[in-house]
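Problem: given the chain below (261 residues), write out its structure.
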Amino acid sequence: MPVITKNKILEKFREFGIKSGDKFILHSSLKSLGNVDGGADAVIDAMIESVSPGGTVFVPTSTFGKPFNLTESTSEVGWITEVFRKRPDAIRSFHPSHSIAGIGPDAARILADHEKTTPMGPGSPLIKLAAGGGYIMLIGATHVGNSTVHAAHELAQVPFLNTFRDITVYDGKGGSFISRSLIPGCSSGFNNVEPLLVEKHAIQFEKIGDATTRWMKGQDIIDIALEAVKNDLSFLLCDRPDCGWCTHAREILGILRGQQS
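Solution.
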């Protein structure tokens, strides 16, 4: 099995046009790459080097409702994200369910006050990153793992985005409190956005190791998905019969249509 080095990963990043000063968030599967010399650290080093000097990189470090401790809670979205958040120069946002970690000069600004917002709504890091010209990279992942797509539902204020959970948050001083956090819902239907991105030439594809890798502007994702949702509120919902969240969402939309007829 061929070995993938940090330099090879960096070379592929350059093919996307990544340069110093850029900002992007990575959603990833380390296993999808194949045999990586240096493992997660090689990927992270390539990320940082690709935007240096002056750039900033991010990864999701979501915990999805488990009791949250800023410095100790394990990221539930892949090994790369867990290794990333433990780096001494990494900053993690203080959101109880959908925290994000960043490394670079713009990390503190973009991650600030995440606990005061919904996970991907106005004022959230993903909205800030997109508005500032930031990008999204998916390594071995599809849009099912592309958190920014959730922003379309939040910005469109879809009527089915109305469930919350109470999460225990530890304050790092020996105390704790309960935080109420919006549940963004199912993302299994988010691949519906890819044909629109391709049609609008708003996505690039590369092969890194064994992994199909996608690269796009965050604002393009938001704009294209938001337009589609405004035209059809069910656009990003999945068709799985066992998905209670999307089934309930369709029921709400059916009731609203009935009231409007």
